[in-house]
Amino acid sequence: MIKKILLNLLFFPLVLLAQEENVHEFPRLRWGIDVGVEMFDGSALKNPNIRESQPYYYDSYYYDDFYYNSLRDSYNYIRGYIGVKPEYSLNHHFAVAAGVRFSYNRSKLEPDYDCFLWKVSEKDLITNYVQINKISQNNFYAGIPLEIKCFTSKSDMLVRQYFKAGMLFNVLVASHNSVEFVNERMEKYADEINRQMGKPSSMSGYLYLGIGLKFGRMNYPFGSVEIQMPVSVFKDKKLASFIEEPAAGFGIQTTIYIPAGKNKLSYVYK
Predict the structure, then answer these.
(1) Which of 155, 205, 239, 244 has a CB 3.0–4.6 Å from the CB of 233, allowing a cystine?
(2) Would residue 58 count as lying in a domain?
(3) Average pLDDT in the 192-205 region?
(4) Is the whole-model pTM more than 0.85?
(5) Is 53 a residue whose pLDDT tops 70?
(6) b/e per residue, 156-176, with b = 16+ CB within 10 A?
(7) Cβ of 195: how many Cβ atoms within 10 Å?
(8) The domain containing residue 151 runs over which residues?
(9) Contacts of 60 (CB under 8 A, 6+ apart)
């Protein structure tokens, strides 16, 4: 009997110490820094002032037409962004986040070969065209992302999977066009072409679903990598002055999180 009591007194503190080492806490609030890219395949919006040539060569082997001075019917639109997004854990499974995001895109309108023509004026029987190598457009956006995240495991594992749903509202902050003419003497028409081309949509909105992996413990700085599928919620919008917004796209995002705050949530290492 005395031996059992002595053994319990000897090993009971060790058991308590082992239990305490398995129970940890992490702050419910953390600051996230997002860096990502979104890719869309948009349809071309061809300005009525653009003049394209007819097929000039037919290849019987490929059964295809080759165009001279023709523009593409679709464009790959790639938009990069960086943002700050605080995230708050409601419990072991769910977290919510909101922040601000700054996006940038550079789009090009150019022919498959050589140059294309743009009508700058028309009076009576006289029509004036200029030859253009390409038109570049830089667009800058500010957006507000709102997200909810669901972790598949209650425990804070070193690698932890999660699903995410969110929405994003983007506002066009600035847009700038650059026209590259065949002849420098035509540069005086740049302002007129910019006026005729117009600007992209001032607002856009997306719903998106995502799946990702968290790497690291949540009581220390950690990171995540995820893939997303944004879906447009506004119709008849323009990604650029010459690109129609598609229904859906694809995105990749990486985030660095820094824990903050005194309000904490207990969890067990696994």
Answers:
(1) 205
(2) no
(3) 88
(4) no
(5) no
(6) beeebebebebbbbbebeebe
(7) 8
(8) 2-46+74-107+137-176+198-268
(9) none
